[in-house]
Amino acid sequence: MKALLLVDIQNGFCPGGNLPVLDGHEVVPVANSLIDSGKYDLIVASQDWHPADHGSFASSHPGKNPFEIGELSGKPQMLWPDHCVQYTRDAELHPELHSAQIDLIQQKGENRNVDSYSAFRDNDQHALTGLADFLVEQGVTELDVCGLATDYCVKFSALDALELIPGVKVRFIEDASRGITPEGVAAAIDEMRANGIDIVNSTDILAA
Asked: Does the annotation mark 8 as catalytic?
């Protein structure tokens, strides 16, 4: 059973959004080619889905600015602009993404007291989203991961998949992803590779 995980391909992380990733919109046609390819038995997506007063937002910390380090639940926290607030356009999946073919959309980041980069669990690694159990129940043995942003939510989702889905083979699709900084992307790819995640491009998958 082969699955594709599309991480946070939302308006908020694309140009015009509240926390745009450089060229984030460029992943959409690549993701669509994968969705439409017939190479996958199952297609799932994650969706940042924050309450308006989420503790990772700089606006929740008087005197703090976005991209400063603050504190959340007693731990250091990167403070972000308000983004992907529930029921807003910013939180919606990109309108050009072929979302009608997605079998499950897993929402995350709903607890205001902890951030959630991974599609599988919160950053404290206590609360699970349920996505891993779903993929196990479906018998997934191969998982390709891509989306936004490589150096945060994509990386943590790929690494958690390895830990939480017994025996799964995970691949990161580089050209279907974009990151925050070049240095962060390079470090994320190195970390994923060091943990046994294969680095591939969509052309490799489509040609197979």
From this structure: yes
Start-to-end CA distance of the chain, whole Å, equals 16
83-102: average pLDDT? 98
Q: Domains in the chain, start-ordered, CATH in brackets? A: 2-50+89-207 (3.40.50.850)
Residue 35 and residue 203: Cα distance in Å, rounded? 13
pLDDT digits (tens, 9 = 90+) for 98-137: 999 999 999 999 999 999 999 999 998 889 999 999 999 9
Report the distance separating Cα 105 and Cα 15, nearest Å.
Answer: 22
Looking at 108, 146, 155, 160, which residue is catalytic? 108
Alpha-carbon separation of residue 52 from 4, 42, 55, 184 (angstroms): 30, 32, 9, 27
pTM for the model: 0.96
146 is catalytic: no
8 Å CB contact between 10 and 84: yes
